Every structure is written in C-alpha cells, then in structure tokens.
Amino acid sequence: MLKRTNYNLLYVEDEDFTRKIAISYLKPYFANVFEARDGEEALDIYGIERVDIIMTDIEMPNMDGLEFCRRVREKSRSIPIIITTAYTTTEYLLEAVGLNLIKYLVKPMDEDAMFEALNICFEQLESEHPNIVYISPEIKLDNFNKVIIEGDKRVTHLTKYQYKFLDILIKNRGRVVSYEEIESSVWEDRYMSSDALRSLVRDVRKIVGKDRIVNISKFGYRIKLDG
User: Fold this and answer.
1) What is the mean pLDDT of residues 201-216?
2) Taking the domains of the chain in order of start, what are their residue ranges?
3) Residue 19 near residue 49 (C-beta atoms within 8 A)
4) Domain 8-128: which topology?
5) In 64-147, which ranges are continuous DSSP H helix?
6) Are 139 and 122 in contact (CB under 8 A)?
7) pLDDT tens profile 86-144
8) Are 14 and 37 spatial neighbours (Cβ–Cβ below 8 Å)?
9) Burial category of 171 from C-beta neighbours within 10 Å (exposed 0-12, middle 13-18, buried 19 and up)
10) Cα dist. 186→45, 50, 160 in Å?
11) What architecture (CATH level 2) is domain 132-223?
C-alpha cells in the first residue's frame, strides 16, 4: 500500500480515458497530480510547477516519453521517473536504463508493481530530502508542513519564498549556493532584485538564527546545520 505524501506527481499519458482513471486513482497519495497529454505539454508543466515524481507513457504524439525524459535529465539527474508502456522492445529497455529510471511498467499496469515503483520513489526522495531537518539543536524544519519548529512549542509558518530559499540551501549543504541558482530556484522565471534577496535573507535569519545563513561576498549563500 501507499501512504499519503506531500509530493507532487506529473502524470503523462495521451489516452484521455487511461489518464483520467489513473489520476483519480493516484490523487489520494499526492499533494498535487499534474496531467499532460504529451511530452511537450509535460515539459511546460515541469518548467513551471514543483514536480517531485514523473510517471510517463512512451508512445505519444508531438514529443514521446523518452525524449521528454531526456530533456528532464538535462535539468535533473535525480528526480524519480517511472515509464509506462504497452511495448517491451529491447530498444526501449536499453534507453530506459540509460535514463536512470526507477521502473519500466508494462500496461495495463499491475497495482502491486505500480505501488512498489512509487514506494521506491518515496524512499529515494526521503533519503535525499528528509521530512525533519535539524538546523540547530532547538530549531528544526518540518518539510511536510513547511514550518520551523523552535523547541517543542513555537511554530513559524514559512512563506513560499522563505521555504524555497531554505530548501535549496539545505539540499546543497556543504557548499555555497550561487545567486544565479537562488534566483532560478526561488524566483523561478521572475527577476530577483538585490533588495528582494537581502530582505528575504534578513527575514529567514530572524527565524533560524543570524549565524546559520552565511553570505559569501559576490557569490551566494550557504547554510550551517547541526543535524
């Protein structure tokens, strides 16, 4: 069985009936399920929304699933991807291996096989991005609820930008995250002014502690974690 998660799934399938049935079945287990009818539409969604897991068919018009996966892998080597297909040719299997996919599921999909594949995705995401991150002995980030917990009582709800800023620093702990990376991850396709960044950093430091967010002049920021 699957557990309810706070992850977002992108489901790509050109057959309307199959897509609608699958999405209705998968929705209870995800915060959001985004749907696309081909690789081009899926790539647009991937560029706009926060997508944690991808499940895509191979045979689709405009852009097939393998080409879509290749484009995604240019941006991320780690996002879990599951391929679904009615075909089991050697060519497809070899291509899937090269794209570092979680699973290659043959349609019609077996429920147990699908659950197994998704649980592997969840385990991979949790190992890379644990639900609770200790910033200091007294301050921790709850990724599921997007809040900072201080001690056992005080809870601070993070804004969208505050959470994204902390998230990219924590994911890249141990190194400096450049201004360009912060702009791309936090502001996405919007312009990041220096004043806006300074204001964001100031607000986050008030929440997690001034010494936790370190500025490397003319380059970017890094985070100091205890846990």
Assistant:
1) 95
2) 8-128, 132-223
3) no
4) Rossmann fold (3.40.50)
5) 65-75, 90-98, 111-128
6) no
7) 876 666 666 666 677 888 888 888 889 999 999 999 988 887 777 788 899 899 998 87
8) yes
9) middle
10) 17, 11, 8
11) Orthogonal Bundle (1.10)
